[in-house]
Amino acid sequence: MKINGPxxxxxxxxxxxxxxxxxxxxxxxxxxxxETADTANIRRWRAPATVRAPLAVAALxxxxxxxxxxxxxxxxxxxxx
Length: 81
Fold this sequence. Notes:
77% of the residues lie in helices and 0% in strands. The chain has helices spanning 6-40, 52-60, 63-80.
């Protein structure tokens, strides 16, 4: 598989967007858990249990960008040769 020209920039931009989405989605879940723990007067280390399902879904969004990054070196090799 070879990616060249504007397609390479588009792929990198999409990977950056996907990675950012994953980080923000996980971060929002964890912040929500901490705020909920503070409001409910429970310990913070128990708070992630309240967002277990949304955090799992947010973590699943990491699999496509990770797979693409694993494939990207092959594309880079095709671009540089």
